[in-house]
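Regression test case RT-17, inverse folding.

Input:
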């Protein structure tokens, strides 16, 4: 395993900071809490952590509305605490990636406030997308684009003289105005941000909305606004995936290479790239662009052997063909957790979702490339689906009034210990409340119980990570598909390790007799006699 290119087969743990561990007793997780949790993550066996935004922000979208890219919001700590965290992580051999948000900022960012105070056509407004409205009095938005979190993508401003004025573009919420990357000042300021954090020792960046940044220069109407309105995915071809974005990633890659040349520590750029096909995805991970980009097709695949094989094959052909490695992911802070997602529409309490989630985890860890784990995934946490309306904070709910696809349920603070909320999450006085309420059943998933129970999901993840590090067949490389009976997915790694996954509703014999059982779910005794390495995963 080439550790200089550590990222090619790394397993990174996503830390949603406000929900990881609270050190101050205010009910919100913070950087000191992350530092306190590092030994737990070291024991789990991950290679690095990705920290969700902790920058100064009014928190309209929980930090993805950034008011200052080069500081720490007091609710999470300060720069001194950040430095302590990165130093502690380095001592433990854990890489640190920061979440950077280059598509949009906060409406409270000083540059946007300056734009509101300036006149139409000013350099201050050129940093964003300001445009005249349509209609005789300019009362209609400049085009028909929809925001991804609901409603139109435009908001009209009141000019300094009090008159109705121009409109500004926001592809998410009105509190998140989009940057205009055609303005040179924007690119230069993000250069300063990259270098600020690289100089503080970070190992790279997770890039939010990496297929965004550039919009069609004429801002024309979308050809299918109804499709834009139906989905939270990046489907508007005029607002996403513009060709100029690749020049940004080439430049950012060059900045990272500059730092690597200084000290030999390779920095990583991993992008949130939402594009229609694996082939378009592959363009973002060409050798001089991003090192990695999340491959969301596996996350979105239904629980079906043919569907999983199709998306894995496409990724291996198109993405790995660039010389990069595929970046696999099953959960994140924007998605329903696998335990719940894979359990539907099974009867509640059937346990089917948990079994399938465990099988999917071992499958992911057996695939060539890198993998990202979302906090709580290793505990087998289900989605919290019954949060009352009055505690929901997701701007999707505020913008649409609908609970469909809201994200609070996967962001409920982690349970660490005890039998009642706050389950050790906060160090506050008895009765301290986490920022989102934890259900009573979280007691079953608390980390202290998971570590003590060798049958828990935590041990399955830990053992899988240990095997991944110990077996040279795993990690970077290729796979070869095996012929199997319907409903079973099987492939070999280096021809002497087999991953076989049962997607059916009943146990089936292992499809590879003569191959050994090394890590598994239930498997009939005697079907894997006398071989050297294999995973038999039963998702039934």
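Golden output:
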């Amino acid at each position: 395993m080439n550790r200089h290119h550590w990222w090619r087969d790394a397993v990174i743990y996503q830390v949603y900071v406000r929900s990881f561990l609270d050190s101050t007793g205010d009910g919100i997780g913070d950087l000191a809490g992350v530092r306190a949790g590092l030994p737990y993550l070291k024991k789990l066996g991950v290679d690095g952590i990705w920290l969700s935004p902790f920058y100064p922000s009014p928190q309209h979208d929980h930090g993805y509305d950034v008011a200052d890219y080069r500081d720490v919001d007091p609710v999470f700590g300060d720069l001194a605490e950040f430095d302590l965290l990165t130093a502690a992580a380095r001592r433990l051999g854990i890489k640190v990636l920061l979440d950077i948000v280059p598509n949009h900022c906060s409406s409270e960012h000083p540059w946007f406030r300056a734009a509101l105070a300036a006149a139409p056509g000013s350099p201050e407004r050129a940093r964003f997308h300001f445009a005249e409205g349509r209609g005789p009095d300019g009362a209609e938005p400049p085009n028909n684009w929809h925001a991804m979190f609901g409603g139109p993508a435009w908001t009209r401003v009141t000019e300094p003289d009090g008159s109705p004025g121009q409109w500004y573009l926001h592809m998410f919420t009105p509190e998140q105005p989009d940057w205009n990357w055609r303005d040179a000042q924007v690119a230069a300021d993000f250069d300063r941000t990259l270098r600020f954090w690289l100089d503080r020792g970070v190992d790279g960046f997770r890039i939010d909305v990496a297929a965004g940044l550039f919009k069609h220069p004429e801002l024309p109407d979308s050809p299918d606004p109804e499709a834009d309105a139906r989905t939270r995915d990046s489907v508007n071809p005029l607002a996403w995936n513009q060709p100029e974005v690749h020049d940004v990633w080439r430049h950012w890659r060059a900045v990272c290479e500059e730092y690597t040349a200084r000290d030999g520590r390779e920095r990583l750029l991993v992008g949130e790239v939402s594009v229609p096909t694996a082939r378009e995805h592959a363009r973002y991970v060409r050798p001089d662009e991003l090192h990695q980009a999340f491959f969301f097709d596996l996350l979105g695949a239904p629980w079906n052997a043919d569907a999983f094989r199709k998306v894995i094959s496409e990724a291996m052909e198109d993405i790995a063909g660039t010389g990069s490695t595929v970046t696999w992911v099953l959960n994140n802070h924007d998605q329903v957790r696998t335990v719940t997602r894979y359990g539907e529409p099974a009867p509640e309490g059937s346990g089917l979702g948990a079994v399938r989630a465990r099988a999917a985890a071992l499958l992911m860890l057996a695939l060539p490339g890198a993998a990202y784990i979302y906090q709580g995934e290793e505990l087998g946490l289900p989605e919290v689906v019954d949060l009352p309306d009055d505690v929901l904070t997701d701007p999707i709910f505020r913008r649409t009034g609908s609970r469909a696809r809201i994200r609070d349920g996967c962001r409920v603070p982690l349970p660490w210990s005890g039998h009642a909320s706050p389950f050790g999450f906060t160090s506050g006085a008895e009765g301290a409340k986490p920022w989102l309420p934890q259900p009573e059943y979280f007691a079953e998933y608390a980390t202290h119980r998971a570590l003590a129970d060798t049958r828990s999901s935590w041990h399955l993840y830990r053992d899988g990570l240990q095997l991944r590090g110990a077996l040279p067949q795993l990690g970077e490389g290729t796979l070869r598909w095996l012929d199997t009976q319907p409903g079973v997915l099987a492939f070999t790694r280096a021809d002497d390790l087999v991953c076989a996954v049962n997607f059916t509703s009943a146990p089936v014999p292992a499809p590879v007799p003569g191959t050994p059982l090394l890590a598994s779910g239930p498997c009939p005794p005697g079907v894997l006699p006398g071989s050297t390495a294999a995973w038999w995963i039963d998702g039934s």
